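Is this the right way to post structure tokens for a design question? Let me know if I should format differently. Anyway, here goes:
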């Protein structure tokens, strides 16, 4: 393991320990550096912000989720596959449930660094779609990620409070949210197809304009 990777793990583990006991919005970068046993300069060398630390967390969960799916791939129709992938993600997040509850409890968490937060979540949900065999391209992929982000946030709010070992409330919420999302996507499909056709036509026109004269 490189020193950079080692420091990233120390920083992330320190932040998660603090978040398990305190509100995330009250935890400062100085608190995290002290908990990790690093100077502020060393912390700054590794991460640019608290949002970047959350990106490290998403990356860790992505890797563990995908490793688990390599050992036990999902099957079934599209609904079943995305359901199982998201439940597998929650499974690998279970040791950090208290910290996750702290992080999502205050909407101002998203204001730390909106572009970093949005891009990190988007990348993670892209891997969720890929693992479920549902990745797409262009506007369809963007719409899928946006819809899945709303579903994921809704389910996380239930999951952090679900004390049932079988996660019955979480699974019911996820199943219902996915079915709502599927209905929404079907209604949106004609508009997406039209947008794709218009985009393809526009790109063809631009290529024609750029083509040198014979």
């Amino acid at each position: 393991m490189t020193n950079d990777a080692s420091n990233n793990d120390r920083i992330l583990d320190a932040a998660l320990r603090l978040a398990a006991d305190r509100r995330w919005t009250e935890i400062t970068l100085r608190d995290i550096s002290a908990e990790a046993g690093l100077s502020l300069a060393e912390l700054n060398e590794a991460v640019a912000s608290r949002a970047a630390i959350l990106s490290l967390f998403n990356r860790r969960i992505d890797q563990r989720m995908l490793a688990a799916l390599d050992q036990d791939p999902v099957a079934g129709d599209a609904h079943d596959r995305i359901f199982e992938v998201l439940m597998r993600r929650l499974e690998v997040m279970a040791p950090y449930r208290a910290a996750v509850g702290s992080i999502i409890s205050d909407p101002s968490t998203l204001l730390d660094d909106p572009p970093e937060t949005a891009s990190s979540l988007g990348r993670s949900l892209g891997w969720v779609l890929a693992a479920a065999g549902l990745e797409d391209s262009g506007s369809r992929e963007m719409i899928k990620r946006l819809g899945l982000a709303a579903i994921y946030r809704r389910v996380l709010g239930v999951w952090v409070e679900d004390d049932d070992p079988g996660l019955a409330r979480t699974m019911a919420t996820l199943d219902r949210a996915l079915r709502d999302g599927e209905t929404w996507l079907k209604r949106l499909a004609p508009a997406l197809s039209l947008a794709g056709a218009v985009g393809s036509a526009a790109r063809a026109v631009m290529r024609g304009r750029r083509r040198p004269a014979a």
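Format looks fine. Someone answered above. Worth noting: The domain at 1-47 is CATH 1.10.10 (Arc Repressor Mutant, subunit A). The mean pLDDT is 87.
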